[in-house]
Amino acid sequence: MKKVLFIVAGVVGALLLLLILVPLLFKDKIFEKVDEQLAKSINADVHYNPDKISLSVLRNFPHVTAGLEDFSIVGKDRFAGDTLIAADEFKIVLNLKSVLFGDQMQIRAIEVEKPFIQILVLEDGTANYDIAIEEETLPGQETPAAEFNVGIQYWQINQGRIVYEDRSLPLRMLLEGVTHSGSGDFTQDIFDMETHTEARRASMVYDGIPYVTNKHLEADATISMNLPEMRFTFKDNLLELNDFAVRFDGWLAMPNDPIEFDMQFEAPKNTFKSLLSLVPGMYNEHFENLEASGEVAFQGYLKGVYSETSMPGYRVALQVNDGRFRYPDLPEEVKGVNVDMVVEDKAGDMKDLHLLVNQFSMNMGNNPVKGTLETRGLQPMQVKADIDARLNLAELDKILKLDTMVMRGLFSLNLKADGVYDSLQNRFPRTNATMALKDGYFKTASYPIPVQEFNFNGTVLNENGSLEATVVNIPTFSMLVDKDRLQGRLQLQDLNDYRWDAALQGTLDLTTIGKIIEFEDMELAGRIIADIQTRGRMSALDAGRYDELPTSGTMAVQDFKYSSKDLPYDFLLSAANMRFNPQAMVLESFAGQIGDTDLQLTGTVRNYLGYALKENQTLYGDLKLVSKRANLNQWMTDDGTVDTTAADSGLEPIEIPQNIDMKFQATIGEVLYDNLTLSNMVGQLVAQNGQLRMDGLSFQTLGGKFGLSGLYDPREISKPKFDFAIRIDQLSIQKAFQNFVTIQQLAPIAERMDGLFTTDFNLSGTLTQSMMPDMASLSGSGFVKVMQATLENSAVLQKVALATKLTDNLGAEVLKLKDVLMKVKVAGGGVNVEPFDFNVGNIPITLSGRQGFDKSLNYQMKLEVPSGAVGQAANNLLAQYGVGSVVGDKIPLNLGIGGTATSPQVQILGVAGGSAGQPSVTDAAKDVVKQQVDAQIDNAKEELDAKRKEAEAQAQAELDKRKAEAEAKAKEEAEKRKRPYRTASTSAAKAS
Fold this sequence. Notes:
Residues 944-992 are annotated as: Disordered. This is AsmA domain-containing protein. By secondary structure, the chain is an alpha+beta fold. It is built from 15 helices and 45 strands. The chain has a 45-stranded mixed beta sheet that branches. A hairpin with a 2-residue loop joins strand 40 (815-827) and strand 41. It is elongated.
């Protein structure tokens, strides 16, 4: 016996060990198959936490349970970012044998914890749940077997939230606090599916009208599933809303796209009390104490076809006989409740919709209500009504015990109508109606300050059945909200061409109104003080004949605040004052702020009536805008901040409304845009036709003066366009490079330059979604003048120096530029520069060419190299081509510069006038040498001629000298020979 026990214990231990090891051994295999199959079968993004996946055999033995936490399926394409399902935990129960030995994993159950399920159907019928990927197969090819075999037998949802929104109807359903479970063998073609559903709160809105609001829902259903024929028969089904239960049976089928219905429903066991549980506000903690009696019958059908073009027919009938109810602690009761009502639309097309209330009557204490109502069709609609009601709202409040509202006052209504409403045929039922409220008082549970002293009386009169004959007249109304009184009057005539006469005076506290009336996703605060009178006719408004619309008055706003999830900052308006006339609204003062931006506005706004009352109307204005500081970054990003160090600035395009035409004469002390601070901005801003135009805008930034005119066009918001004329005066080259992406792309050489420049430039193109220029789209032209600048460590000049052997003259020089004027054109993804001149030391240079935004270079450089100055360097260069020493005045060189800005390449192209494709380097050098040799020969000839002429002159001078000396000597000798004869004669004469 002991041996048997040891064997049994060993077997059990082995089994337990196996159950523990199986998840560890096959975990990777299972989740690998899960990932593969999801990727192949679902066109959506599937997320789950890889650190929180689990696998267990013990939980649902003999099956294995796989668990995923933080699970979600998010749509793609048109539903990008929309969640289809998100759950805290998603569990799948798999057949263990199929996991260990099978080719397909068999799913047996699904459990979901706290899911959010959102089903969306767009106007064209596209649904977010249609995410299955269909595998393509060739003709004759069998469909490949899936990795998973879906044979679900059980499923469960715990504490879910489900949204169903079908915009094609339009219908929206919301279920909160949902617990749902179901079972059925989906491995079979025909089987019964049993489900149980409970929702703490259920709401349904159809075509903007709420039909069910925050009702408790519980449903049990047994449905016969015929999957081959896609036919589903309801066997035993019960739906409960609050205490009201409806049983339904029948079938629906969808063998193709249309859905066929044949269903009946009824409420055979309901009481008048259960019907009262559907009345808004009555199903509360007091409901159990409610005493009620009366007979109730409720039945109907749904039959026909639902498709994109048709709706099934339906009928709903409700009868209440001799109903009564009251609470034990109240002396008064509601009694004599009788209802006989039918709503029917046999064709489901709404054309023959028939609403018949044969009888409706009840007595609330001493206040009787009775009436009949019948309507047929929609356009045109036949109407017949007779209603008489007198209600003491305080008694009604006590009887209904509405926890959400307190109300008082005397309300009366008497309405008789008979005829046809057809706006196309200009028909209106003959009507005589009066209504009044005296000493009205309303307070909601969400806000303790009541609307009180609410008084009005009014009439609706139509005597001949035409739209023109209709007159709605409320000669006076008034109310007190907290300490603010609001009063006015309204008369409306001729519903074919509305004619109005209205007045409104008083103060409205928006903080109070915002708490009484809940504004979705926004908050309002502040006070509006108004005294306005207006009258006119709609046809005059349509035609713009504002002189026929005498509107006048004033309105002041104090301490206004607007908060919204769409704005990163609150909009604050400390004070504003406006005057009205038919043509315009005059803004006398306006002082507001949003984020860091303050605004002061004065001026005139026109067509405000058309803009406010009609669609597709334009609002015109001429305003003066004054601001101390405008932070545009807070208007251009989601969170109001900009990371100026990031490649993506975080900025986003600003849309300009299409239906405004506003001119702003702006004076702004400081504007923050991206990483720039613009000071003393003055000019005109024009918002028109969805574009923003800047006229004569001027400002200072980075130490320079800017002028800007042009257009920002975001009408195609995915590719905003711009076209600007830009004037910049005396701006630092370094600051321009550091702060403007465009300069970095257009002139990367500016990174190594220091100095000032001025430019007149026209530039156009498109912007990216981060408001940066799309460089490939840029085009423009203009002039750039460098007044004075230096360039050090230029990679281009260093390569030129190496290529020309002028390293001592070019490579070591700091390039100094002064009064350099460049004509520049931007096109085709690059910058074209026309020839311009500058010097490096004593070397004149002419440069022209093109630089691409990809930093590619294609420049031509002409140098006039003084050979005497460079001497040996020039001879060394020429010696490479087998030419001896040459000495001359200048050596003209043509260079080609290619490569990139960071790695330039330099070639010697030829002599002056040469270019790429002309003489080779050797030929060019020989040409240079020949010119230099010829020049030296010419110089030698000139020197010899000069020396010869000088020697000839010297020889001639010597000859002339010797000739003169010879002539003088000869003359002297002749004189000596004549002297004795002259003496003798003289002596003889003297002697005699």
